[in-house]
Amino acid sequence: MELDIQCEEMSPSRWAELLTTMKSCKTIRLDDCNLSSSNCEDLSSIINTNPSLTELKLNNNELGDAGVEYLCKGLLTPSCSLQKLWLQNCNLTSASCETLRSVLSAQPSLTELHVGDNRLGTAGVRVLCQGMMNPSCKLQKLQLEYCELTADIVEALNAALQSKPTLKELSLSNNTLGDTAVKQLCQGLVEASCNLELLHLENCGITSDSCMEISAVLRNKSSLMDLSVGDNKIGDSGLALLCQGLMHPNCKIQKLWLWDCDLTSASCKDLSRLISTKETLTEISLIDNNLRDSGMEMLCQALKDPKSKLQELWVRECGLTTACCKAVSSALSTNKHLKVLHIGENKLGDAGVELLCEGLMHPNCNIQSLWLGNCDLTAGCCATLATAMATKQCLTELDLSYNPLDDEGIRKICEALRKPTCNVQQLILYDILWSSEVDDELRALEESKPEVKIIS
């Protein structure tokens, strides 16, 4: 049994009702429910008396250190079987870490701990690392984003990594680590016996100076499948170093996020080689990099390589124009694996989307999700888009937000949605002006086709 409630104010009567339900739940999710430490006393009792409970998610509640202390009393009981604990943005400080350390040391069932968006600080996370080093700790996933960590945390993290072969996921994004600390962390990861599968280091103050060490992790940890270094100024020179590790035969990367990394079209030669030859790579995000049309054309050439197995490509806000759309269309008509294309916030224009639709409607194309928000589109391209929607049954999600489509364009899109051959299930139309008559048509369409969700 699962209890999943979000963004609900809890009255005493409602809370009492839910407590009865919780006694038999395997999963409890209560994000954004205005819970406090007093609710945690009740939850502690649930943890203690419900041995089937394996997941507890309490993100975005004002639990505070007192609330976590209550929770941990339940977590430390022998009957507790909790595996996943989410406490993101719960107003915790370093004071909570001593209590959580006790749980890590004594509760081998706990495999996931998510405590990001809390002011734990370096001192607090050092205490958590002590708990991780206990032989009883079997932690597999640790999320420490936005925890006000500094470079001083790396020594404790490395010691924990050395003693914890079970650890598979480590997220340290949005902490001011800097190059020196990231280098030390990577050296520790190379030496550690853990089989890390996910490493997130977004917005950690990384430059090209750290990229050789990150590359070494990629070469030495064939288990690593998910790497995110977005929002770091690694530049083209850093990307070239990363690619040395990414192209190594030992590297089995599947998901690579490089958004806002100060990349230019100069990086696209290396990226193209990666896309065309790394058959494990299925998802890459290059959002907010100045790739330009010339860079995109190189990427499209790589997508046409039979060895490319890429399924998701994110190139939003990359300085693209109509000029690259013929190459994109050609890639769509060739690549059978690509399912998600985020190409919004580029000046494609109606002419560009007309070209994209040619590739989209090719029998080889298997696109399921297409994002074209803020692409300078008007009603002029909507007839072609409508044809694609009505004929391409694999297309289930379409984003046309922030484009001045007006009543004429929206009506053409609605016509396509009404057709039995159209399989679009989610249509996103943020910040588009239309008349009350068209609004009525959209609501009527949702009623007649309840499987269609229109988000505006």
Automatic annotation (TrEMBL):
Superkingdom assignment: Eukaryota
Q: What does this protein do?
A: Ribonuclease inhibitor which inhibits RNASE1, RNASE2 and angiogenin (ANG). May play a role in redox homeostasis. Required to inhibit the cytotoxic tRNA ribonuclease activity of ANG in the cytoplasm in absence of stress. Relocates to the nucleus in response to stress, relieving inhibition of ANG in the cytoplasm, and inhibiting the angiogenic activity of ANG in the nucleus.
Record's keyword terms, sorted: Acetylation, Cytoplasm, Leucine-rich repeat, Nucleus, Phosphoprotein, Repeat
Subunit structure as annotated in this protein's UniProt entry: Forms high-affinity heterodimers with RNASE1, ANG and RNASE2.
For this protein, the record's Gene3D superfamilies field holds: Ribonuclease Inhibitor
Gene Ontology cellular-component terms listed: cytoplasm; nucleus
Q: Name the chain's protein.
A: Ribonuclease inhibitor
Matching InterPro entries: Leu-rich_rpt, LRR_dom_sf, LRR_RI_cap, NLRP_innate_immun_reg
Coiled-coil annotated residue ranges, if any: none
Localization = Cytoplasm; Nucleus
Q: Does the keyword Iron-sulfur apply?
A: no
What gene makes this protein?
Answer: Rnh1
Keyword Glycosyltransferase on this protein? no
Instruction: Name a Pfam family for this protein.
Output: LRR_RI_capping
